[in-house]
């Protein structure tokens, strides 16, 4: 078993049950999410979802890491990031059978998204019925104008380098 904690820095830490940090996750640098406010996993703990103060949802695949966390080849891969709300995400959960993510925000809206791609299905209280079978039609909520970003590259863990002399004037340059 592991524990996950979300932080204001946008970092997620995975902890062993003994209290040791096993891994730190940072969102892909091209898609800043801000302070994290909500976390959830799927029922099989293969997917980790995080919601942010800026309204973003980030999805990581953690299955291979959890199978053998000691093997450095087993990485955690950020798969998709999307803007779900214009304001803070306060709760989210995933429903595996229908392959949807449900998000709630401080704006009072509850929205449905395709779990794999971040495509918008609609919000609770809308006049039309949800069509969960059509993931090809790209629509967005009225207050969001960013399409989901499928992350192709590896999200590198940013290491802090120690600098002995951070500010030096080099007159030759």
TrEMBL record:
<keyword id="KW-0853">WD repeat</keyword>
<dbReference type="InterPro" id="IPR036322">
    <property type="entry name" value="WD40_repeat_dom_sf"/>
</dbReference>
<dbReference type="InterPro" id="IPR015943">
    <property type="entry name" value="WD40/YVTN_repeat-like_dom_sf"/>
</dbReference>
<protein>
    <submittedName>
        <fullName>WDR64 protein</fullName>
    </submittedName>
</protein>
<dbReference type="Pfam" id="PF00400">
    <property type="entry name" value="WD40"/>
</dbReference>
<feature type="repeat" description="WD">
    <location>
        <begin position="82"/>
        <end position="113"/>
    </location>
</feature>
<dbReference type="InterPro" id="IPR051242">
    <property type="entry name" value="WD-EF-hand_domain"/>
</dbReference>
<dbReference type="InterPro" id="IPR001680">
    <property type="entry name" value="WD40_rpt"/>
</dbReference>
<keyword id="KW-0677">Repeat</keyword>
């Amino acid at each position: 078993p592991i524990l996950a904690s979300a932080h204001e820095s946008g970092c997620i830490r995975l902890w062993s049950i003994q209290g040791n940090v096993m891994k730190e996750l940072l969102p892909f640098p091209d898609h800043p999410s801000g302070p994290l406010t909500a976390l959830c996993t799927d029922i099989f703990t293969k997917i980790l979802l995080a919601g942010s103060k800026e309204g973003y949802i980030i999805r990581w695949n953690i299955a291979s890491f959890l199978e053998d966390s000691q093997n450095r080849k087993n990485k955690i891969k950020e798969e998709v990031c999307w803007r779900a709300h214009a304001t803070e995400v306060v709760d989210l959960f995933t429903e595996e059978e229908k392959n949807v993510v449900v998000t709630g925000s401080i704006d009072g809206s509850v929205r449905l998204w395709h779990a794999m791609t971040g495509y918008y299905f609609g919000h609770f209280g809308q006049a039309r019925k949800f069509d969960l079978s059509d993931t090809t039609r790209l629509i967005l909520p009225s207050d969001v104008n960013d399409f989901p970003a499928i992350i192709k590259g590896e999200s590198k863990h940013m290491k802090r380098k120690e600098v002995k002399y951070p500010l030096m004037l080099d007159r030759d340059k």
